[in-house]
Every structure is written in C-alpha cells, then in structure tokens.
From TrEMBL:
This is Hydroxyectoine utilization dehydratase EutB. The gene is eutB. Residues 18-300 form the Tryptophan synthase beta chain-like PALP domain. Pfam families: PALP (PF00291). One of its GO terms (molecular function) is pyridoxal phosphate binding. It comes from Paracoccus gahaiensis. PANTHER family: L-THREONINE DEHYDRATASE CATABOLIC TDCB, THREONINE DEHYDRATASE, MITOCHONDRIAL-RELATED. The lineage of its organism: Bacteria, Pseudomonadati, Pseudomonadota, Alphaproteobacteria, Rhodobacterales. Gene3D superfamilies: 3.40.50.1100. GO terms for biological process: isoleucine biosynthetic process; L-serine catabolic process; L-threonine catabolic process. Its cofactor is pyridoxal 5'-phosphate.
Length: 315
C-alpha cells in the first residue's frame, strides 16, 4: 500500500512542476448544506486536472525508456503527455471512442499521439500493454500505480495545510487513484478524518467492484462525468484494497444531479467537467451534509465548451 512517506517524497519531487492550487469558501453551498463548504480548485492545475500530480511523479522515476504510454479517459493522458514532453519523451495515449474530442485535441497539442482503440478503457489498455511489451514503452496506468497514487496524495497535504480543521473531504471516485492517495495521506495525519467518495450511477466500476467484494468488469456508459468512466482492472493491486479500506462513505449520483452541479459551479465562476462537479451535486441533492468544514475537490476543468453551453441553456 502507498503510505505517507511516499506522498511526502512525491511532494518534494513534483513541487516545481505542479501548481499549489487555492481553496475558496462557497457561500451558496455552505448555506445549502448548513455548514462551511470549501472548494479545492484543482481544476486550475496546469493541465486542467489533478492528474498532473501523479503523472509527473511517475515519469520522474523512470530510467531509459522508448517512451511512455497509457490508457486514459482523457485527463491522465493529457497529464502524461505534458510530463513526457518536459522530459523529452515520446508519448502514445490510448483511448476509447467515448473520450470527448476536446480531450483528444488537448493531448495532441502537447505533441503526443492519441490512438483510438475500441469502445472502452479496457480495450485501449490492450494496445498500451502491447506498446510496453513489444516496443519498450513505460506503461503508466491512470490509477493503479504506486507513484501515481502518491502524486495524487499531495492534494491532501495541501488541503490539510489550507483547511487544517477540516473533518471531511469529498473526493470524485473512478479508478481510485485520487481517493486512495488523498485518503492515505489524510488519514495518516488525521486518523479521524472522513473520506467520502462520489461517483455517477452510470457505469461506476469501483462501486460495482466494492459491492461484489472484488474487481469486476462493467459496461462503460456515456455520462456527464466521463472522467469517472472506465474499469478498474481485474488485476487491480492497489486502489481497490485502498479504497475499500480507507473510504468512509460512497455516494452515487444521477445524470440530472451531476448537471445541476455543473450549472451551480458555473454560477460561482467555476467552469468544470462533470467529474469535478459531483461534490457540489451531492450537496445540492441533500446527499452530503458534513461534517463541517467540508472540502470538495474540483478535480478538472476539461469539459467540452459546447456541452457546457448546452447544460447552461437547459437550466
């Protein structure tokens, strides 16, 4: 398992390459929830999402490789492309047909190759594994990797420095790299802190795996929280047991609830993707009510502008 020492080492390793993102008190969400709700503005990260932390930490630990590869729903691929370019490495990012066009374009803009494979992240991983096996690429998975988890855990160090009294953190949950890292660091420093995972009802692989007691495959479905899609891997070694053991609660949301979260955060001046809006959505739906002060991680900003405009018009 990944521990506090690894997260602290990651903070030292990536400190010059990632932003320390601010927090902001949400008066509107605080009034709705009945206690202070703080937003961790990680959507302002350099690549528009928290994934830069884990990707940068993982790439920093590589030796001599032909390049780097991964399978991604978009944000990890963009982060890995950014980290690879900084090291002068070739990057091939494998993605399914469900990845939004704006995320593909952002990856290509960083000089990486975006390779479209199949209808799911699991399909894309087949090609990423082939590149690692046959062509000497380093495979940096989006979540089930110790250096990736440790990098994401640096968010918890910042949160507890900025809001040291916070008794609870709401964390978007997909493959579990963010939640595992945040929970490992936060609970090592504050064993009583509550970590609440938040995801969508449509195709939440970690939720289905937890219910089954082991990693399972799920059908990947289109969702507003597209960054939370994809499987967790049947051979998952790290994030499944860490999420199982460290997460205190899990909330699953409908598409309408996620849309409401996106719209609300836009009204506060935060343009975020669906995955980043799930915390606000849970508060608005009356599903998340402290303990306070509650910190919500706004995990990414990479929403398709046309989709965002349609959601605002539909209000």
């Amino acid at each position: 398992m990944v521990g506090l020492d690894q997260v602290l080492a990651a903070r030292d390793r990536i400190g010059r390459d990632v932003l320390r993102t601010p927090v902001a008190l949400s008066d509107a969400l605080s009034a709705r929830a009945g206690g202070e709700v703080w937003l961790k503005l990680e959507h302002r990260q350099t690549t528009g999402a928290f994934k830069l932390r884990g990707a940068t930490n993982a790439v920093a630990g590589l030796g001599d490789v032909a390049g780097v590869t991964t399978a991604s729903t978009g944000n990890h691929g963009r982060a890995l492309a950014h980290a690879a370019r900084a090291r002068g490495l070739r990057a091939v990012i494998c993605m399914s047909r469900l990845v939004p066009a704006n995320k593909l374009e952002a990856i290509r803009a960083l000089g990486a190759e975006a390779r479209i494979i199949g209808d799911s992240q699991d399909d894309a991983f087949v090609e990423a594994h082939r590149l690692a096996r046959d062509e000497g690429f380093a495979l940096i998975p989006p979540f089930d990797h110790a250096d990736v988890i440790a990098g994401q855990g640096t968010l918890a160090l910042e949160i507890l420095d900025q809001i040291p009294q916070a008794p609870s953190i709401g964390v978007p949950l997909s493959g579990g790299g963010l939640l595992a890292g945040v929970a490992a660091a936060a609970k090592a420093l504050r064993p009583d802190i509550r970590i609440i995972g938040i995801s969508m009802e449509r195709g939440a692989a970690m939720a289905a795996s937890l219910a089954a007691g082991h990693p399972v495959e799920v059908t990947e479905l289109a969702t507003l929280a597209d960054s939370l899609g994809g499987g967790i891997g049947l051979g998952n070694r790290l994030t499944f047991p860490m999420v199982r053991d460290l997460m205190d609660d899990l909330i699953l949301l409908t598409e309408d609830q996620i849309a409401a979260g996106i719209r609300h955060l836009a009204s506060e001046g935060h343009v975020v993707e669906g995955a980043a809006a799930v915390g606000a959505a849970a508060v608005l739906a009356g599903r998340l009510q402290g303990p306070f002060p509650l910190v919500l991680i706004l995990s990414g900003a990479n929403i398709d502008p046309a989709q965002h405009a349609r959601l605002l018009e539909a209000a």
